[in-house]
Amino acid sequence: MSLVCYCRFTFPKLLEQCSQGIASTVVFTGLTAEQKHPLMKHVQQLVRSANPTAAFILAERGAVTRNEDVNLILSESSFNEPQMLRARYVLYPGWCKGRFFSGSGSLVLTQQRVAFNRPLERPLFVTRCKGLKSSLRLTPFRGNVYNVWGKVRFSDSEQLMEVSYNTVSGSLSIVPLIPGPKDTDTPCFLVFDGVGLTADGLKDWLRLCAKQRQTNKPKKTKSTLSPQEIKSIHMTRHLDPLPPGFFYNGYQYVDIFGEKMNFHPYMEEFIQEYITEANKEVEQFNRQLELQGQPDLFDP
C-alpha cells in the first residue's frame, strides 16, 4: 500500500496511515526540490519514526518519473507480504474494522429523532442553533451536530413551522406550514444529524429552547445577605429606639464610654427579623411553585 504525503504532519491520523503494516511506500509531493528544508526534514523524520521500513519517494507536484517508483506505488502484493501482515495485526488488531487508537478511521454519522408536545421559544431556539457551530469539536468529533430539521411550534404562534439549520454554513430556515386537517394534533419533532449523538443529550439541548422552568428560591441567611441589603436594613431601622446608655449623633452610635459604632446596637436583631420575614416570602413563593406544577417539554 502506498500513501501520498502532502507534508501536513498535523493532519488527523497521518502517522497511523503511514505506520508499519499499513503503508509500504510514502510519496512526498511538496518541497522535494529542497530536501534540506526544515519542514521536509521534520516530516520525513516524523514518518520514519512511525514506519522504519517504508520506501520514501520524492515526487515534486506528484510527478513520478522512475519506473521502479511506479512499481512500488502500484504494487499489488506489498500490502499482503508477511512482515506487513504481522506488523498490521500486532500494532492495529482492529484495523480491518477501522478501529485505531485515536478512534474510528472514518466519521460515523448518526441520526436522532426527538419528538415533543410543547412549544419552543423562538429567540432561544435561534440562539441555541447558532451556538452549535461554536460547539463543534475536532477529532473524535463526538457530540457534533451538523444538521437539524423538523416541525415545531413556537410560543408566539399557533402555526406549525418547518425549521432547518445547517451548522457548517450557519443557514437557518423557519417556514410556516399551510395547516392541514390533521396538523392540529401533529406532534413536534426535530431530526439531528451528527456524530455520537444521544437522545438524552439532545433532550437537554431542546429544554434550553423552551420556556425555562422556575426553580425554588433558597432561604436567606446572614451570610447570603448582600451589602446592599445590610445597608437597606440600616437605613430602615437606624432611628429605632436605642438601649440605655447610647445616643445617636447623626453619624454614629456612641455609648457612655465614648465608644462609637457605625451600626445600631440592635443591628443583629434587625437582621434576624429581616431574614425571618424574607424567608416567609420565599416559602410562600416555593409553595405556589409546587402547586402550579411546571410541565416538562416532553410531558404528554
Describe what this molecule looks like in 3D:
Helix 7 (227-237) crosses helix 8 (267-292). A hairpin with a 4-residue loop joins strand 12 (253-255) and strand 13 (260-261). The protein has 300 residues and is an alpha+beta fold. The chain has 3 domains: 2-103, no CATH class; 109-207, CobW-like, C-terminal domain (Hypothetical Protein Yjia, Chain: A,domain 2); 222-292, no CATH class. The strands form 4 sheets. Strands 6-10-7-8-9 form a 5-stranded antiparallel β-sheet, with helices on one face. It has a 3-stranded parallel β-sheet with strand order 1-2-3. It has helices spanning 14-18, 38-50, 67-74, 82-91, 122-134, 199-207, 227-237, 267-292; strands at 2-5, 25-28, 55-58, 99-100, 103-104, 109-116, 145-153, 160-166, 171-176, 188-195, 246-248, 253-255, 260-261. The protein is built from 8 helices and 13 strands. 32% of the residues lie in helices and 21% in strands. Residues 111-176 form the DAAF9 CobW C-like domain.
Structure summarized in a few sentences:
Residues 111-176 form the DAAF9 CobW C-like domain. By secondary structure, this protein is α+β, with helices and mostly antiparallel strands. It has helices at 14-18, 38-50, 67-74, 82-91, 122-134, 199-207, 227-237, 267-292; strands at 2-5, 25-28, 55-58, 99-100, 103-104, 109-116, 145-153, 160-166, 171-176, 188-195, 246-248, 253-255, 260-261.
